[in-house]
């Protein structure tokens, strides 16, 4: 974990020197690439001009241009900041800008691939990587991650939402009282160690008070996707007001939300209904990581940010943290790297639906590996690969490439078709193939090595494309050298 002073410096650098204000045209990106930066330090601040809400799309103009060898600092804003406005939004200008939603204006009106919450994550980017082409591999070294402190309080808070997509809604509740419960955590430092501690909890809606849920101005009905490349106009419409398969009507200029149907709602609850009894029950060592980091897929439409992709995206693997390296296959020119959904803590499975969703600032180094000269361990790479100081992590999903494998309506069908059994098959096949390629093994040799040396784990069971990963210890191969 980085020292306290290093984390402070990281946060200050981003606040002072970040790029924001507008996106670059494709022509401007190409012009910048003509004079490569060759190892420069760049930073990208997060606000409504440098982020998208809930989707990947290859037709978005880049927020920044970077070259292989550059180090970049990127701000990532949590899509759950609305769970406590005073602690996670108020006083932070970039976050206030992203969440601004009044009767007159929704600063970021297109939320989700079709504008009605089909994707929830606030993703900073995309970052155009010079010379990146389909078939290349982008290496992303995660140099540092730091909790984003609210400038007005000097504190960082996060939210764990035990939401309707959590596995507890599949497994069942003891009293059959299905409920969405939000726990607000504070990030604290003690003796140069970082922890998350529960502050209080509350129900999103329902409960003994019969609270119907938070009320907002009516969400924008339609519009054009912001910041698309010149000459392209992508219209979106949410005229039916169907959000997460639920109709939420507009009455007298307001909508009342009985559940997490639409991202960015500012939650409220009746005064005095907070459950303070959780305070002091436990203290969890922080494990800062990025839940959603990926490249744009080669797909003609905007892609929901929730189901993970062969190009990365919403992996929710807690090992994507400082000191790790991520390798992603490039599918489109410029790679178009975006990131968000950062967590200060999460266990494997992300069982209740989220981690401790927290705004975080990160520092990264980019290295582009060209298709004609790929290192052996990323040759033929078709899935995300994570490298930690001690392990290789192969990431599998129910569908390795759901967009191309599900024949009809893949972005909706993936949520009904997810299976841990299928994810295990994909993770095994990818692990076997990767070990055969990387270590010159036969299939039988890979099978026995996997069985006696590797661990498989459930990455997540909440993202519409369930994840299973394999942990391959480096030392078993170093010992054989």
Automatic annotation (TrEMBL):
<keyword id="KW-0732">Signal</keyword>
<protein>
    <recommendedName>
        <fullName>Formamidase</fullName>
    </recommendedName>
</protein>
<dbReference type="Pfam" id="PF03069">
    <property type="entry name" value="FmdA_AmdA"/>
</dbReference>
<dbReference type="InterPro" id="IPR004304">
    <property type="entry name" value="FmdA_AmdA"/>
</dbReference>
<dbReference type="GO" id="GO:0016811">
    <property type="term" value="F:hydrolase activity, acting on carbon-nitrogen (but not peptide) bonds, in linear amides"/>
</dbReference>
<feature type="signal peptide">
    <location>
        <begin position="1"/>
        <end position="21"/>
    </location>
</feature>
